[in-house]
């Protein structure tokens, strides 16, 4: 997505870090860079508005459920692994492996 105009910060960089901006998980200097970009790029501003609306809707509809402590700990652990650049195993998901089906009976 791009408006076709050159920007100090590329649209792809803005969109790659949009949720960090929405969640205010970046330094103020970075936030200012995003705000400046939105002033001059209507497609990115539109995407920001859409994602902001979705975030508000999810919070309103799903924000009342408590997250189990062990799940929160596992998610935070994976986030820390990713941030540190370590490999994250794909098999350590919280779901148990599927149960095997009983063998089909043979009726004669």
TrEMBL record:
UniProt biased composition (Low complexity): 95-108
Coiled coil: none
NCBIfam families: antisig_RsrA
Organism for this UniProt entry: Streptomyces cyaneogriseus subsp. noncyanogenus
Signal peptide region: none
Domain Putative zinc-finger: from-to ranges: 11-44
Source taxon at top rank: Bacteria
Region annotation Disordered: where it falls in the sequence: 85-108
Protein name: Anti-sigma factor
